[in-house]
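Pilot study result, target chain (157 residues):
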Amino acid sequence: MSRVEVLRSIVDRILEDVRDPENRRCGFVHLYGVSLVATWLARRRGENEDLAASAGMLHDIGTYETGDPTDHAARSANRARAILQATSLYAEHEIRTICTAIGHHSDKKSTHDPFSELLKDADVLQHILYNPTLPPLPNDAPRREDCLRMLSPQTDR
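Predicted structure:
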């Protein structure tokens, strides 16, 4: 089993313990969705696809596990570090890359390292693709237009 699949099985167990069925469903949809979009973006941008998939799976884990969205990026980064270390499948520099991106993913107004930017864009794109008729989340607004351009047909040729 690949390390992404190991990680997904851990996340699945965490989400299966979420009591509220709507939050559980949202957790599965959002975490898997961001993971898939992050993998796609990593391929396009020449980043590590495996690390992108892992970061996407864990980027909001602190919120879904506790039900508390307070300071969720930092809390999710800390929880992700513990999960990744417990697997013994990730090198320390990989854990640092993933957790740095998770820690930055809510700061959509600022620019950070390319891997952090990839995770931010994956988060916004998942929100758009999940339901394009919904208004943008306030935090997504600074990136929404750039992310929409990524989805236009001429950018995929």
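One observation from the pilot: The CA atoms of residues 18 and 24 lie 5 Å apart. A full batch analysis is planned for the follow-on phase.
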